[in-house]
Amino acid sequence: MKPFSRMLTPGWLISLMFIGLFVYLCLTTLAPWQLNKHEDLKARNAQLVESSAAGPVPLDEVIRRDGSLGTSEWHLVTASGRYLPVEDVLLRMQSVDGKLVYQVLSAFRTDSGDTLLVNRGWVRVGDNNTVPDFPSAPTGQVTFTARLRIPMDAPADPIVLNEWNMVRNIDPPAIGGLLGVDLSPYYLQLAGGQPGSLEPMPLPSTESGPYLSYGLQWMAFGVLAPIGLGYFVWSELRQRRRLDDEDNEAAEAWPREGGNRAAGPDHETTVSEAPSGPPAATVDGPPDEVADSDRLVAAAMRDRYGDRFASEYRRISRGGNRA
């Protein structure tokens, strides 16, 4: 327990707190975050596959079903009605195949009286973020097929650029405020070849993505971090025990009090004969006399300070040898 108690230093305590916090975040926040994104992606892929296999259904039938409308996202629906004679709103900061585009959002009122946004497709961004000419939405009664979409929970951040109302995200309440109409909390994304469609937005791929592997990595980090800390603690304790054993061996080999025959076989010197001061840095005289003097000084220091001096002297000697 003595080597372990000496490790209770501020540095080790801070490391322990940091590792504990890191493990907590890995297992309760970071890993679940990535695994939840993986589950959301799986649900979206399943809806894409299901919508591709199923035929279009009337919009009124879908939006008036029981349950959450999000379970029907990406399904093909048919809608009949008219485009409203209001200006379009552009969705900015979008890209398709690496090209910067604007997505064109138009207001549409169904025959049942619902007013919603229709994403008619995209146009290329011109020089200096200018908006190129594109066909307006048709007038009169139309019927089209589109995919039902649920907006993301993100602010629209509306701005006016080149005399066009633009938004960063599709937020029906905010866009309705720009157009002066009340919009439904969902919107439609036109397929190609439909009345009013421009270049259609591509469907997302059904790849699983990296989220599952990221989640497993965070879980592995949360498990390996305390194991790594335990290894370093064990290594440090082993090193300290080794140094303590060396000090004990040095102390046992040190001249014991009660007598010292350092002066030779015909002369016995006791500890009381040794000087009480610290070891001299340099002693003049023959090598035998120098050695005898060092032994006498060591014996005197041991008599005064006990085994602690032996340990400290051992450490100083090792440092001097290395130097």
UniProtKB/TrEMBL annotation:
Its main location: membrane. The chain crosses the membrane at residues 12-33, 211-234. Residues 254-270 have a biased composition (Basic and acidic residues). Pfam families: SURF1 (PF02104). It is a multi-pass membrane protein. Residues 248-294 are annotated as: Disordered. Keywords: Cell membrane, Membrane, Transmembrane, Transmembrane helix. It is found in: Cell membrane; Membrane. It comes from the Bacteria. Belongs to the SURF1 family. This is SURF1-like protein.
